[in-house]
Amino acid sequence: MLLDPVLGLFSNDLAIDLGTANTLVYIKGKGIVLNEPSMVAVRKGDQRGGRVLAMGREAKAMVGRTPEDIVVIRPMADGVIADFDSAETMLRYFIRKVHNRRSLVRPRIIISVPSGVTQVEKRAVRESAQSAGAREVFLIEEPMAAAIGADLPITEPTSNIVVDVGAGTTEIAVISMAGTVYSRSVRIGGDKMDEAILQYLKRKHNLLIGLQTAELIKITVGNACPTDEPECIEVKGRDLVAGIPKILTIDSEEVRKAISEQVGTIIQTVRIALEQTPPELSADVVDNGIVLAGGGALLKNLDVLLREETHLPITITDDPLTTVVLGAGKLLGNLPLLREIMV
User: Beta partners for 292?
Assistant: First the structure.
């Protein structure tokens, strides 16, 4: 692939964090210009080439509130494309929304993908972006983008450990000298926690709630560690026994129990990564510690629990939700490094 810096002057090159829950777009010279849910609302039977009703925030507002003939699709599942047509439609919409149509040249796009992504999944991402109007597509691994976004010295011979907890996947990577020494991707993240909260309330309290309510519970009172004073939240749902709407108060301790399996898996994956780190780099980890990024890093006390379990310094990036796209955005201005680290 030829990287022509002259062409770059005429086009607004983009960096995209194509997430399971949210898609973020960064434009060279402007910063983050779009942050919307990765959702598409279509009329049933119209998914393939049919009429799209809404995308992004508008589509998310429809979840669980639509008539039978309208369906809200999440094109991304577990960090990768699950519905090719919807993903392409969504990407095209987001690119057109932010890109200056007057520019003569189609944009060059950097997209971050999970480190455990297969060749088929890589091709799906690349083809979706090209169909949506990209001139060239470069793929980089999410943990590497997160490390760059967190301003870690990735080109130096020292250990940089990044844990990126997203909605669909949790990525852990040990990075040194602009390369990945060890990486592991588990398909557990915020979505699985939401599902666990939903199932817990159904099983324990016979209360049926939607995934958006479960997400709100996680964000409001979710906690990775037991606390002296549990927080409470009122939850509205349907009583499965009586069949009528009901309000229930649950506390953060119950939510902690509900998501303990998912949090435990994340901790275990970090432990495995530390065991696989070469001894010389392990010595650096004691000083440098671990950097947490991704929306899941905002779960209360996840850093505290990791610190207790690993006895290492844990740092959360300034804005965990945007760390990956900021890292990818920095690469738009550093083509030699992009060449070196692209997938």
Answer: 163, 316
Model confidence at 101, pLDDT cuts 50, 70, 90, reads low
Other Cβ atoms less than 10 A from the Cβ of 272: the count is 12
Within 95-227, strands assigned E span 108-113, 136-141, 160-165, 170-176, 179-186, 207-208
The full set of domains in the chain, from first to last, is: 5-36+80-144+323-341 (3.30.420.40), 39-73 (no CATH), 158-188+261-316 (3.30.420.40), 190-260 (3.90.640.10)
- Predicted TM-score (pTM) of the model is 0.91
pLDDT for res 60: 93
Per-residue DSSP letters for 210-256? Answer: -HHHHHHHHHHH-BSS--SS--EEEEEEEETTT-SEEEEEEEHHHHH
9 burial level (CB within 10 Å; 0-12, 13-18, 19+) = exposed
Average pLDDT over residues 180-204: 95
Q: What is the pLDDT of residue 1?
A: 39
